[in-house]
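Figure S7 source data.
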Amino acid sequence: MTKDLTLFTELVDYLISEEKNNPVATPIDSSLLYDTLDLSFNEDPMIDEDFTKTLKSIIKSTPKTASTSFFNQLFGGRINRATLGDLLAVMLNNSMYTYKVAGPQVGIEKTILKTICNSIGYPNTADGTFAPGGSMSNYMAVLMARDRYNPAAKTQGITHKMTLYTSKASHYSIAKNASFIGVGRDQVRAIKTNDKGEMLASDLDAQIAKDLEQGYQPFFVNATAGTTVLGAFDDVTSISKVCKKHDIWLHLDGAYCGSVIFSDDYKHLVKGIEHTNSFSVNAHKMLGTPLSCSIIVTKDKKHLYQSFSNEAEYLYQTNDDDFNLGKTSLQCGRRNDALKLWTLWKSVGNKGIKNIVNHQFHLADIARDYIKKHPDYTLYSFDNSISVCFNYKDIPANKLCTALYNDAELMVGFGNFNNQEFVRMVTINSCLQEKDIINFFNNIEKFVSSTDF
Ligand SMILES: *Cc1c(COP(=O)(O)O)cnc(C)c1O
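Tokens for the predicted pyridoxal-5'-phosphate complex:
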């Protein structure tokens, strides 16, 4: 082990120097990948020197998500204490299904879940679990809702004509999950948004009424805290009133920006969250832990047991249900995703977590200010969002982002809303500073002035 740990340190040093000196890896065209890197297996073992060399060439070409030039998707950055926790979890290699094999790691997970349940105003009956990502957290939510309103679904399959609701701006996993749970994509109603991308409660109410009239059973509404493109926050309070009126499960998908619950300054963006039935948040997005760290909590833990518990004598050999996390999990064997968040949170405290969240909004303010002050830019996103959407000199966003990537200048993506395409930069890496944001724009300007579009 010691020998490999030494190699590991050498490789990490190499990675960190690459991040600094070549923050955007020169991309390898996918058609040339297998010709460029030695990825196939051989009959004989590889000698150590070649092994190290191969690993280094792979590291060199792998996109650097923690670099100061990465603004591409809704994660990134590296917070050391979180990375430390994840490395430790790999070394410990527990599975989270029972107290017998995970011991205090179970307590670590439960502490995080309890703290989150309390901070959003859920009652003592609340509990949750970790899922392998935000899509799977949403899956667990809609599955619990299905089983609550159609308990026979577990044994007989779907027996009702069920419908679910989510805004046009929400994440694609909602439609995908509708197919997984047997309700079907055609039963997903896409609710209109206002011009900021926030779901319209009035349209939701009207759509539900229409479905009821036609004999459907509306059972699930998904609201979003941080829509994928614009980073908009649906109005939970007004949506929850519609759900209450019709007795429908309300889930809040906070994969992207649900972490605002950790900041007194931004918690107001999810006002009314205590009226939801379930809530999910990805710590691997705003909190900057390594992938993946996704949490789902529900107001009444009986729904977790109803949908996910199974008797298994070979597994549950101690009678401590509350500590046998396998009974409330989507999986059987389950990776320890809690420790990395715990090491981060324990080391920086509640205040540190709050600062991580606030800093991202601060960086977004810096970016929006820059855009507003420079007439060559057009802004398409809004305040209180860490997605900053813009165009520069009317260059098609798709073209600009692809050219920046091909020339190893910047990693940034594009998106669209209401048929308008734009560059979407995200200020989700809390390790960045103001100067990195200014550099981002300066790099675009320099690049454009030396390129033909
Ligand atoms: C990222 C995201 C998801 C999916 O989360 P994964 O961890 O990538 O599966 C779901 N919903 C929203 C709003 C997201 O931003």
